[in-house]
Amino acid sequence: MGRITVGRENSTPIELYYEDQGEGRPVVLIHGYPLDGRSWERQTRALLSAGHRVISYDRRGFGRSSLTGTGYDYDTFAADLDVLISTLDLRDVTLVGFSMGTGELARYVGRSGHERISGLAFLASLEPFLVQRDDNPDGVPSEVFEGIESAALADRFAWFRQFFADFYNLDDTLGTRISQEAVDANWATAIGSAPVAASAVVASWIEDFRGDVEAVRASGLPVLIVHGTADNILPIDATGRRFAAALPEARYVEVEGAPHGLLWTHAEEVNRALLDFLRR
């Protein structure tokens, strides 16, 4: 529906594609990897029915936004979000991020403040810090992320097939909670992203968000954290539960048996938690 210029790469503008629907208190939806704003289909419908203005956008390198060769880090992603919010002059807005999109939420608050923001919802989040280190012994070994990057570089078409099998726990959900056609549509969206993005974003996943989490806590903003107990992409013990422990004031919801891709497979539970939070 619209495009916003957030920068330039050589001779071309870097543009974000966005959709802006409905009226009421605004909600901005920030998608996960390797999808785009259309991945919020089931949430958008519920939010519009509840009387919200809903803004979704495609991150740089994904969907209908510019397929850039650079800028795949959270400082840049958060700056892009800031341009969107400022250009649309959004106020009293709730930011809702899914998976990789939760990084923008935390980094935005840390960099740009929270004057325009009324709440934050983290769905299947990657916070507080994924990588195993001496000061983060419960994290994931760095070799895991090196393997992901190598697989995405070697053959992103095959990599995305395996990724979505784990994203949706297809051994358990295919044919019951998600159709093969929906999975194929996700794959088609993924391969339409910038080829460099498939592997370049991996480095952003392992950024240390602990300082950003502290900025979120210090902001005093209402926070919702939702995570599936069967998440095989960002396991709940390494992410959601630790994140909730770091933000004890947050509203924390576990969705029993839900995979990482719970926006689709467990849309009813996600929408209920999100709408309850927005009614606070």
TrEMBL record:
Q: Which residues form the AB hydrolase-1 domain?
A: 26-267
Report the domain of life of the source organism: Bacteria
Which keywords fit this entry according to its UniProt record?
Oxidoreductase, Peroxidase
Say if the entry is tagged with keyword Hydrolase: no
Asked whether the UniProt record includes Oxidoreductase among its keywords, one would answer yes
Q: Give the matching Gene3D superfamilies.
A: alpha/beta hydrolase
Give one GO molecular function term.
Answer: chloride peroxidase activity
* Pfam families (alphabetical): Abhydrolase_1
User: Mind telling me which InterPro entries this protein's record contains?
Assistant: AB_hydrolase (IPR050471), AB_hydrolase_1 (IPR000073), AB_hydrolase_fold (IPR029058), Epox_hydrolase-like (IPR000639)
The record ties this protein, via PANTHER family, to: HYDROLASE, ALPHA/BETA FOLD FAMILY PROTEIN, NON-HEME CHLOROPEROXIDASE-RELATED
Give the protein family. Belongs to the AB hydrolase superfamily. Bacterial non-heme haloperoxidase / perhydrolase family.
Protein name, as recorded: Non-heme chloroperoxidase
Give the originating organism.
Mycetocola reblochoni REB411
The record lists the lineage as: Bacteria, Bacillati, Actinomycetota, Actinomycetes, Micrococcales
